[in-house]
Amino acid sequence: MQPIRELSGLTPGQTPTGLTEAATPVVMRGLVSHWPVVTQALRSDAAVADYLQGCWRGAPVAIMTGPPEIDGRIFYNNDLTGMNFGRADAPLPALLQELLRVRTEARPPCYYVGSTTLEDCLPGFQAQNALSLQALAAPGEQAPDALASVWLGNRSRIAPHYDLPDNIACVAAGHRRFTLFPPEQLPNLYVGPIDFTPAGQPVSLVDLKHPDFERFPRFAQALAHAQVAELAPGDAIYIPSMWWHQVEALDPFNLLINYWWRQSPAHMDPPVLTLMMALLSLRELPEPQRRAWQGLFDHYVFNAGPDTASHIPEAARHALAPLTPQGAANLRSHLIHRLQQR
């Protein structure tokens, strides 16, 4: 493993220019060190808990809970027929008090709140703890419309997974270790089911804390290409779209705020839908047909350019025309109609 590239000397609250151009991870030391919540976190766990309770307005939070035996690993059960954790809804103050109560236990239960919309959970938080994404926009354009989420709990390990959106994750309390793998390491990560997952995204079945190289021998190659960094309160990391990442919360009380945004039009559907449709319609074809369809995808999708449909009159290009909101709606309607005919 190698360290993730770092930037320091940044203006707190301002993302640097050119952050996303290389599409590689970057650690930004001190980016949100000015946040009031970070100030409270550096005082004590109780201080940051009081601060968060003051931002809460009554909405329950969805909590993943696991026994001490899972060692914080939010994952499947032993035979992958279910999960090793349960789910419960609770008021945020009750969770905060429980985190404070068990923080001195050697083997506490695992409590994990993940991907909870910040505005729903802690309205008003962003007004006091701001991060400008304007530097991510092209000149003359507005900042990305990012979705801000809160991640809260005690020690936890979230298996390597990818996200479609680009991501800036800001550590507000506790310490977190990020281990990242480039997208091309997919074959070496031994990914589990894509339609039955612990939290929405497919995950690697390898336990990074105790890797089983007899069962997963190619994982050694993934580790050789891995990048790792440990972040303290006030630090942030940029995780590019489609990079696999494990996130490990290292302390008894941890808080992370992240910002997700897509570098694509809102009318585009998630590509994973195409993958699932390909599994349904392409994977079991005879090999010559699969290769022919691979050529079609290369021609119309992966290597598409101005000449792909230039021989067709512009008004007659339909699905081959540049995608617009109306064109996306037409394609979606066509697909739904075709699927309903099955």
Automatic annotation (TrEMBL):
Transmembrane segments: none
SUPFAM superfamilies tied to this protein: Clavaminate synthase-like
Domain (JmjC): residue spans on this chain: 111-276
Pfam families: Cupin_8
Entries under InterPro entries matching the protein: Cupin_8 (IPR041667), JmjC_dom (IPR003347)
Name of the featured protein: JmjC domain-containing protein
